[in-house]
User: What shape does this take?
Amino acid sequence: MDCLFCKIIKGEIPSKCVYEDEKVYAFHDINPQAPVHVLVIPKRHLGSADEVCEGENAAAVSAVFCAIPKIAEKLELGDGYRVITNVGENGCQSVKHLHFHLLGGAKLPENMGI
Ligand code: 5GP
Ligand code: ZN
Assistant: This one.
């Protein structure tokens, strides 16, 4: 499968890793939209949050949300942060591997999209 984020997980494309475990990989976004902008992704390939969430898919998403507070602590985001996932064309999803934008490091705009 020709998936950019699967290649990043495998190390075929370089990335700045901030966290990794058995099910999750997190790395700095190449085009940051906030002082801290990290992408948190399941190692299991899922196209988006719109995919059926059961069994191993559900476990993959759950692992992402278990990892997020650990990543936030590591990046000193104790004052808060934002988690966003874009889905499909109207959501302006450009990479078709489920990913969660973790944004912080400053007070974010109340109505910020990405
Ligand atoms: P989306 O628009 O699909 O929600 O978000 C995709 C994100 O992936 C964008 O914020 C974009 O900057 C980031 N991105 C795209 N290609 C690369 C890459 O090769 N490396 C990294 N670190 N981020 C990427
Ligand atoms: Zn993938």
